[in-house]
Design brief:
By secondary structure, this protein is mainly α. The chain is 56% helix and 9% strand.
């Protein structure tokens, strides 16, 4: 389901199109937050690298990224990388 399209259609007063099909066994994945969560759980000793990799061994659906429209994902990740670089620079001062 293209949630952005549904939101746009609702915002413009259009009737959202009914979904035609969907894939089962697909999980939504946000890599940045997942890596952060893994790092915390790894430090606590509640998750091993192998367990984390096994959790990724299924079909993934990225919340932002689309192969046919990568620009939003690139923009989001660019902003995150810039913010992270600033935090790191402040921490190293």
């Amino acid at each position: 389901m293209d949630q952005a399209l549904v939101a746009y259609e609702r915002a413009t007063g259009s009737e959202p199109r009914p979904g035609s099909s969907y894939r089962t066994g697909v999980r939504m994945w946000h890599p940045v937050e997942d890596v952060r969560a893994f790092a915390v759980q790894r430090r606590r000793g509640t998750l091993t690298v192998l367990e984390w990799l096994r959790s990724l061994a299924h079909r993934q659906h990225f919340l932002v990224y689309r192969w046919d429209d990568p620009a939003p994902s690139l923009a989001v990740n660019w902003l995150r990388a810039r913010r992270g670089a600033r935090k790191l620079a402040r921490a190293l001062r």
